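Data availability (excerpt). The following record was deposited with the supplementary files.
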Amino acid sequence: MTSHQTTQTMKPATAAKKLGVYLEATPAEFQEGVVSRSELNALQADPPEWLQELRRNGPHPRPVVAAKLGVSIAGLARGGVTDALTTEQIDALKKDLPEWLQKERATQVEVRKEAARIKERNAERAGQPQRPRP
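Predicted structure:
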């Protein structure tokens, strides 16, 4: 009995997400086809010019925009940013520093502090013997 190994493929939207690019900005042949795991690996290892350009100048998908601005995706939505932004637009927001961005960055700092506190607390608990519950 022989086993046939099938090539693992993914939709273009999944591949774009893994590559960190905005699907609608990719070439038509990328959007219309399927991407195999080996093709994805090749794109990551040796990105073609179009992929380098998208990563450099955008438009960027919301997770990338949020990371570049130092806020959450929900924070982007609260700030009214629902579309993909170019690097130039992101830089303009950083320069202008609107009130919503300042507020969301402060919120993100607090969220990270709380996550670190909880992680530390859980690590301490893991090092202590468990107390019996009454």
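Summary of structural features: The CA atoms of residues 38 and 83 lie 30 Å apart.
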